[in-house]
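Subject: for your reference before the review

Hello V.,

The reviewers asked for a structural picture of the protein, and I figured it would be easier to keep everything in one thread rather than splitting it across files. Below is the amino acid sequence we used in the manuscript, unchanged from the supplementary table.
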Amino acid sequence: MEEKTLKREFSENKVKDSYAKVAWFYDFWALLTESKAARKVIELASIKDGESILEVAVGTGQLLKELLKRNPNGTNTGTELSPGMLSRAKKRVSKLGLDNYTLETGNAYRLPFEDNSFDLLVNNFMLDLLPEEDFEKVLSEFYRVLKPSGRLVTSTMAFGQRWYNKFWHWVAKRFPGLLTGCRPVSIVSYLEKVGFSVEEVQQLSQNTFPAEVIRAMKPDEKYSFVVRH
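And here is what came back from the structure prediction:
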């Protein structure tokens, strides 16, 4: 039987407060549960040096650091709602000695960018904390700022395919604060609804924590091809 997506509400102040509390140990948590998905995001992004790249919700900058390394001659932009996480991201990427990036506070519901601005948009473990009824709105913003044939690569907490993955759904249901409100979600249908062509969907598990990584494209023509693993 298909699991239902747990209800969530969005409060900008609550998100800022939640991530201010976990910023100090978030990197350790990510190493144990999210780093495998992050590596897959980089792989599916297929970055070509010289592109315009946007990461929405940079967190502490772990993934952003890898984007910058692969796009030193392009333009790189990062946004983050949580000031505590953004501060850590700025500190991390400043050590690279690059100047071709901008980092700013930003809200995924209202991205402060022109239409058709980016070749690639990356979003790592953010949609799974938003209300399901807001998925279409946020994904429409992603679609808007991408250029035609632009790529979206996103990762979320997933329901998982193994019995032990279900533990995390139970945690999200019984103790949502432990996961800062994140829970398993499925976004493929929402991507397709706003106009994306979904090209690849991969299910991963790291230390029992389930994730889904998706590559989609803003098409010039209306067709899609999905590869599932």
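For the response letter, the relevant points are probably these. The chain has one domain: 12-228. The chain is about 35% helix and 25% strand.

Happy to draft the paragraph if you're swamped.

O.
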